[in-house]
């Protein structure tokens, strides 16, 4: 018996049917692997990390075994590993399952699901608390404190003349990323591990483009590998010590640099369809919260590396947690980049 996906019907989440897992994995990974996915075998390693919450869409889905909500998937084809990366169960299994159920059961608005098979018998099965009609939540008032802390507005950044740099006519929304040839080489030649994801900080100066009201220009001056990080195949995380060491470094350099964002690696080649994972987006939105800060992603493929930048969309241009690509420009005489370099 192989691992399958059990489906449960709402509102009581009674057992409904089973669905084969492998076709869902192939559907999820086809944008990354292409035709090779059809002859690939898969190894899954479920991780005891919670991933609760409903997968929005039609139909909506909820993982009824949320205590193991992350999985490291390894794809093997022609006797070699062609893909290895962590995912949430909801993006690897839930999203393709949602597309399948929308076609096969268009009249069902909500399902529960969970992985089932040999070795998974002890995974906790958790039914969500049902919503009660007429329920009203009341929040008790709190006594106002004697003191109140308010965040001071950031100082207005210095202006920069993009036209003087030969970069006039920038049209895209979001920040403009400028990177020098030496810093670009750090991304594209640094000796990254092929066993675990690595990363660090992107530092430099934030400027303002007078020709584009409200447009931030990020001049990247250096790439700083983070120390004291939590690094594994599941995820790359920063610790408090990472930020303390960075603060000491910035102070010792004395160049008025600030943290423009962060970078990390993915251990597979880049595709247009697959950029930051949901794990990456969660880290960015919870840690790098200034609207102009960016996330740099370095894909380590067999034929070369690809560098891309992303920023969080502001409220009103996308749901919370939505990130969009940001093309970068190379300064210092090298031809401009459209957002990727291999």
UniProtKB/TrEMBL annotation:
This is JAB-N domain-containing protein. Residues 5-157 form the JAB-N domain. Residues 323-342 are annotated as: Disordered. It comes from Actinoplanes derwentensis. Gene3D superfamilies: Cytidine Deaminase, domain 2.
